[in-house]
Amino acid sequence: MVRLLGIDPGLRFTGWGIVDVDGNRLCHVADGVIATDGDTPVPERLRLLHDSLLELVRAHRPHEAAVEETYVNRNGSSTLKLGYARGVALLVPALAGIAVSEYGAMAVKRAVVGTGAASKDQVGMMVRRLLPGATIRRADASDALAVAICHAHHRASTLRVMAGTRMA
Question: Which domain holds residue 45?
Fold first, then answer.
């Protein structure tokens, strides 16, 4: 069994989700959102994000992590701040010795829903279907679980290729 941590980074809300993978079975472990106050200076918000992610890594001991890649929007300042949060999300597991993979939003949607043009609602619905019993309170947590699911699928394919298993 392998435990995966999925992270959907954001400076205001960073979603996180943890799943256990046993063969082709997925099991929801935990999910949530790390929220920071927009009135707090950015360095303090990044410290809170770092400390919270570090506590998650220590508490749940994931074997691997996956982080959603940054998309570029029209507001350069917002994109830069998202990049700060994403840097922390990549750094915390890496410093803990955990392998980190990155996936674009379209790859995550394709892995979970089957199309890169899926809406947030469609992703959320499929995450709930793939992880029965998960009580997801925010879309950010659902997105993080989707990143973990995407990594589980890619990981399984990579392991099959490395083992020389032919897929039908």
Answer: 2-166
